[in-house]
Amino acid sequence: MRLLVYLNATDGLCAIEAMEQRGPSGRPYTFMLGELSDALPVIGPGGVGRLPDLERLLMAKPDLAVAVTLDEQQVRMLEQRAGIPVLLLSYGDVGELQLPVFAESLRRLAAPLGRQARAEALLAAIDASLAELATRVADVEPVPAYIGGISLKGQQGLASTQAGHLPLRWAGADNLADRISESGHRFIDLEQLLAWNPPVLFIDGGGLPAVLKEVAINPGLFAALDAVQQGQVFATLPFNSYNTNVEHALINAWFIASRLYPEQFPAFDPVAKANTIYRDFYGEPLYARLRANGQGSQPGFARVDLITGEVDPVPIDGG
Question: Is the Cβ–Cβ distance between 204 and 175 less than 8 Å?
Answer without folding.
Answer: no
